[in-house]
């Protein structure tokens, strides 16, 4: 199932992240070991950010899949 987070702090990443916006998470177990999360940012590419910048948003599988396919 796809996972999404909402940005709650974009300090230092203003060009890459928007506060209160949903971002799709790219699974990266190694990043989590370092308190980081990989998300698809405003550039459309996946990058690592501190987990402190985000809160997880629990979504149903149907909604998560639909969001993942929104251009």
In N-to-C order, the SSE pattern is EEHEEEH
Major beta sheet, strand line-up = 2-1-5
Annotation, overall tally of beta strands: 5
| CA radius of gyration | 12 Å
> Can you tell me the number of structural domains?
1
Report, as a whole number of angstroms, the end-to-end distance.
19 Å
What is the CATH C-level name?
Answer: Mainly Beta
Which oligomerization state do the chains in this entry correspond to? single chain
Q: Which second-level CATH architecture applies? A: Roll
What structural class is derived from the secondary structure elements?
Answer: alpha+beta
> Could you report the average pLDDT, rounded to the nearest whole number?
94
Major β-sheet, in short?
3 strands, antiparallel
Low-confidence stretches: none
Indicate the CATH topology: SH3 type barrels
Specify the helix fraction band: 10-25%
Strand content: 25-35%
Number of DSSP helices?
Answer: 2
């Amino acid at each position: 199932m796809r996972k999404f987070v909402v940005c709650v702090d974009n300090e230092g990443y203003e060009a890459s992240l928007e506060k209160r916006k949903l971002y799709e998470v790219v699974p990266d177990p190694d990043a989590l070991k370092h308190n980081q999360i990989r998300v698809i940012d405003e550039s459309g590419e996946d990058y690592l950010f501190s987990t402190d910048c985000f809160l997880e948003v629990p979504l149903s599988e149907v909604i998560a899949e639909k969001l993942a396919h929104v251009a």
